[in-house]
Amino acid sequence: MIRGVYEFLAEEDTINNIDSMKDTLAKIAGVICNAVQFIKDYSKTKSFWKRTEKNIGSKTQAFIDGYTMTLNDLMQQYRDRTARDTQINVYHILEDLNLEGMAYAAGAGLDTSKICLDGTRTEILRRIIDWITDPRPNAPRIMWLQGQAGRGKSVIAHTIAAWIKDTGGLGSCFCFARDRLSEHREEKILTTIARDLADRDPSFRRALADVVSKDYSLKTTRDVSQQWQRLLLKPLSRVNGVIVGNVVMVIDALDESGPETSRSRILPLLASQEAAHLPPNFRILLTSRLLPDIEEAFTGCQHLTVTCLDEVPLETAEHDIHLFVSNELRHPHLEDVIGPKEIDQITQKSGGLFEWARVACEFIKRKRAGQTLRERFEDVMALRSGEGGTLLDKTYTTILQTAIPPASLARFRSVMGQILTTLIPLPMSALQLMRKYFPNEEDHYDIAVILEFMAPVLAGVNDSSPVRPLHASFYDFLTSQSRSRDYFISTSEQYDLSWASLRILCNDLQFNICRLESSYFSNSEVLGLQERINKYITPQLSYSCQFWAQHLQKTTFDPVLAELVRSIVGSERILFWLEILSVIGEFRRAVDTLIYTASWLLDQPSFEDALGMVQDEIKFIMNFGGAISHSAPHLYISALPFIPSDTRLAKVLMPMFSGLVGVTSGGLREWMAAQLSLEGHAAAVYSVAFSPDGKRIVSGSCDKTVRVWDAERGVQVGSPLQGHTDWVLSVTFSCGGKKIVSGSKDKTVRVWDAERGVQISSPLQGHVGWVGSVAVSPDGMKIVSGSDDETVRIWDAERGVQIGSPLQGHTDWVKSVAFSPDGKRIVSGSKDKTVRVWDTERGMQIGSPLHGHTGLVHSVTFSSDGKRIVSGSEDKTTRFWDTEEGVQLFCLPQGHSGPVSTVAFSPDGQRIVLGSKDNTVRIWDSKSGVEIGCPLLGHTHGVLSVAFSPDGERIVSGSADKTVRVWDVERSLQIGSSVHRHVGWVESVAFSPDGRRIVSGSSDKTVRIWDAERGMQIGCPLEGHTNWIKSVAFSPDGKMIISGSDDKTVRVWDAEKSAQIGSPLQGHTGWVHSVVFSPDGKRIVSGSSDKTMRVWDTESHEQLYCLPQSHTGPLSTVAFSLDGTRIASGSYDSTIRTWNTQKYEDIITHHQNSKTPACNANAFGTPQICFSSVLSHALHDSEQLLDGFQPQHVEELIEPVKLHPDGWMRGPEGRLLLWLPPTFWRPFYSSCNVAVIPKDCCTELDMSHMVHGDKWHRCLKTVG
């Protein structure tokens, strides 16, 4: 194959025609590159295929034949001088690695309608291509193509992207657009680029899939830093040297991403040293206008080269524009008026601005009532810049003057206002239909009367594509009153769109709108779902579902509008709305939409009921959003049944539905206190704080990062703030919320811009020890820090310098500091067991130290009125002090069983929250010293930091368990002598049946046998385990011993010979915590940290069966009943479960006697699916779920439906029966248990009336 190509390239005819057939040669090169990759992949994976015992010879030959045929076809095309579209097949040796679900910005890619006209822009294109193919290792990795609006940056970017694609190169094109701001493309930029590269290169695809397989959250992360590090840099590092040719990323129109904050995460990455050290064949082409934030970010970047289109010589630009204008106006009906002279005039008039030339050509070509072609040309030539406007502005004004009569200006403003404030472009038909819902009848006219003559400046006027400005400069023109004057469009008030969106929702929302037949399938499994969406969900309904609240947010409160909102959020329509978001794949918008709505309804006494519903609905989505977005029918059959019964939401919605699963035991009456668990830090969270408006949370961690979180949605905002070189021990917001201050083990204090996520100036240096606490003064002008160098220091927050000398007096580590509400005093707590108060201005201690604690003081703070100080200590106490008198007021009763590590007052000073190393958070009345409610449980390690939200309704806590948790304050609902021969801990002991011997298992990895009378070891230790031994037991006849170990094995020993019998019993994937013999000694049962129990044959050492996984925690102990027919198991999930082993053994015996590989599902009748202790609560119509059930293993027959780790109860073929919220997993009644004995109560479900499968839609009660 390769020889044939070489001989072809050496042919004289090939060499003579290289220029004219370069595209075909590029495709040949692409096939050769793919063939090379195939050979590399094959050599790497050949042994893999052999191990799988698959014969891939024929498949491999088919691949080779495919490449050969493609190359022969391309070479023949070259000889025939044709350019047929030949598909270049890229074969993947390994299975296609599923990257489904990765966030992707649809429509942000290459647009071939925007590429340069042949023969134009040749010089700049050649310069870019030379940069891309520059072989030097130190070649700049990034080119910034900049220039004013209308210079043709996007056209050049798309031309380069098309060239990469046509030549078979590896690349991606990502475009920002002003009319797509609502999509937040900046959050998907690198996931989209990574997905594009994966689709084009097998090696990158495998590397990316490997990264994602270890952390599925990366598929949808909005953290651009994580996208950069793990979805781009990490896969690239793995395939560096493997990818043949250049990798090119095109990022077009970065200036159209939105406000500066939308670029604040990506710009530092592009300017970073990591970008400078991208692989030598990697290039990023970036286009934008010259905006201050972009220029500032790239100043001094050595790995970036700048090309400015404003500096292109005028004669070069005019040459290209001349070609463009000649092509645009080359029509038979124009040639009598537009000749070479007129084309020259238009070219000269353009001043080198491509966008002006395009608009001018469109204006001239389009017929206008009452104007001849010559008159239109003369209008264009008569334009003059100056007088406060550019030539382009004058052109836009002329076009509008021609298209819009003065009497129609009001209609023009209304229609263009609708187009410009619509958050995604809509076609004319949808705009027209939405307009019919506008509140004023006079607005219900045909918008074509305004738009029909605006084709030069608007797309979608003459076809069914979305209507939008053809160029960003027209949007800028219309929204600037000084430039557009009479044609100015205000986008500030959006009442009409709010009204129309809400009316559409009220009229068009309906149950099961896409006619989904079965609840067993996820949305992605529904055949023809997109066709159903197109048929049943109109564009205007889809738009209204996505954006109604964003328009509402920009509308002044209006009671009539509020009534429409109430009719949606206070009825079943809210569910129908969520259903549509689920099926169209936009469920991520749900929480934000309701947050906007809640903000709009706030402080409106007449609509407190609607606000309460919205707040409940936000919690509903947070608890059940995963299931709803996965499968729309489960909005009703999985989410509704588990709404807490006493909530407003349950009382409004539940009467409208029937046929749902019942929660007979373990149900909730109120929402759980722990609303959010913010996960992302890789180590303990040492400090947390709310922003002043309560909308954000900041956290500092031992992973050396500071992270900002959305307090409502529980998602990370932007990338981690990186800069500290050691643990971050303290974080806080400034009073305005614009800055974040952090203190670290690296001995520095750092100040961050909270909006842009970047460090402000240099670190504050001076401490010679860890900075364990920081605080900002109420006026934001000062920062105070406490350190283990025993000093307190005050800093000027603006200038970044220390004020005065260190405050000295403590004799040990200063653990906590805080400002008084008036900023005049500072309080500090120390490991020296004292609390001290300081004068901020004079830098002196006020009075004597406050003594009383008998352990180090972890945390101190002032009350909101500044009259009291509270301190929490290692001595497990919390003490209140009088600020003025310097005396102790009282000490809270000792409630915590561990040191009090953190304290905080509520904003009103009425409550105090304490966090402790006993893993709990407790709330106390600060006046009476009485604990309020029960401890807030949830953290699995010590609580290191707590804070109240500004409204006092929530508490945030950070813990050594690496999580940040948010709590609802009001609903804080809770619920003889040793044998000294082992050299490690003795984990398990047991007597022999005759009581004469004892067996012991130890962390020293040995089993030992002892004389029970004399206390002496018998024989040698039994050795073989490779880790701690957790359980030992004698057989009923005393002749054998079994042991279970952390090495995941069970071993059987001869008790007389002190020797192992046979091989270890292997199968567990976790530590074996407990082992026991059956009463007849023929079976062994083992329980493990992998949450399973396995039953083994004592003689053969073979596993008989694995009991279904019902426990949600590691098993701690197992036991047989005296008759051997039942097994009991105890677990760290706080439950005891009993199992009927006879049932399983009957199934196994039948299967063994049938001598067939598959199990007979009908041998014992239809399996009963029951998750309750009451058998009559078994699933109704289970035959439908089990239809066609052909189990391949005994375990499948034993448990055909089970709860999976993701919360889904799945039946055969992955059919979705029910999703169970995590709150109900522990403890849960399994269908395989005889009984469950829980610590408190056990979740039991009544499925006897549940509708599912093809009957799911019957859950909605029919009206009347």
Please explain how this structure is put together.
This protein is of the alpha+beta class. The strands form 15 sheets. It has a 5-stranded parallel beta sheet with strand order 2-3-4-1-5, with helices on both faces. Strands 14, 15, 16, 17 and 18 form a 5-stranded antiparallel beta sheet that branches. A hairpin with an 8-residue loop joins strand 6 and strand 7 (468-469). The longest helix is centred in the first third of the chain and has 30 residues, at 22-51. The chain is globular, with a radius of gyration of 36 Å.
Summarize this structure as a short list of keywords or feature phrases.
1264 residues, alpha+beta, Rossmann fold, 5-stranded parallel β-sheet, 5-stranded antiparallel β-sheet, 35 helices, 59 strands, 23% strand, globular
Helix content: 25-40%
Main β sheet profile: 5 strands, parallel
Q: Assess the beta-strand content as a share of residues.
A: 15-25%
Give the helix tally: 35
Biggest sheet, spatial arrangement of strands: 2-3-4-1-5
Overall body shape: globular
What is the highest CATH level, the class of the domain at 122-311? Alpha Beta
Compute the gyration radius: what is it? 36 Å
